[in-house]
From TrEMBL:
Annotated protein name in UniProt: Membrane protein YphA (DoxX/SURF4 family)
Taxonomic placement: Bacteria, Bacillati, Actinomycetota, Actinomycetes, Propionibacteriales
TM annotation in the entry: 7-29, 54-72, 79-99
Organism from which the protein derives: Microlunatus panaciterrae
Annotated membrane topology: Multi-pass membrane protein
Protein's cellular compartments: Membrane
Domain (Methylamine utilisation protein MauE) ranges: 10-141
Length: 175
């Protein structure tokens, strides 16, 4: 596939919208019940108590903000990079819980906390997050997409400065 042509722009659009939707929905479902969000973070048994509370309260707002940035296509590359780092953290957390034999609901879409043994869905959670990570990685590599604020303002244009003249070189995919 030509990763610099019109097909790549549509692939980026197709990657951007579901990634944004997952982050907005996940954050919105958690923000309405911050106590459950803190309990979900606590169930991972990875952070000190004070940090569990901070992450439990703050993560939903961060997810919503990232999701909205990606949705409208504003600072797409940076937002996708941060989303990718969060996804790596989520994947690592689920792998850690599974390796330690804990039985929890990941709390990815609200709720969360301890569950009965055999009630976990770690493989599905990891697979979903790896798919989202691939979408975020694509957007870091090729952020140009349709229906984006970045595209409307030419944020993907690259300029070369030679002498005192500014020469437009095209979009970053054509460098």
């Amino acid at each position: 596939m030509n990763t610099t042509g019109p097909v790549a722009v549509w692939v980026s659009t197709a990657a951007r919208l579901p990634l944004a939707a997952v982050f907005v929905v996940a954050g919105a479902l958690k923000v309405v019940d911050p106590v459950a969000s803190v309990q979900a973070v606590r169930a991972y048994q990875l952070l000190p108590a004070g940090l569990e509370t901070l992450v439990g309260w703050g993560l939903p707002f961060a997810e919503i903000a990232l999701g909205l940035l990606i949705l409208v296509g504003l600072h797409t590359r940076a937002a996708a990079a941060v989303a990718g780092l969060l996804l790596l953290t989520f994947i690592g957390g689920v792998i850690s819980v599974a390796a330690r034999g804990l039985s929890i609901d990941c709390g990815c879409f609200g709720g969360g906390g301890r569950v009965a043994p055999g009630q976990t869905a770690y493989a599905a959670e990891i697979a979903r997050d790896v798919g989202l990570l691939l979408a975020a990685g694509w957007l870091v590599w090729r952020p140009r997409s349709h229906l984006s604020v970045d595209g409307a303002f030419g944020a993907h244009r690259v300029y070369r400065y030679e002498d005192t003249r500014v020469q437009e070189f095209g979009d970053e995919e054509s460098r």
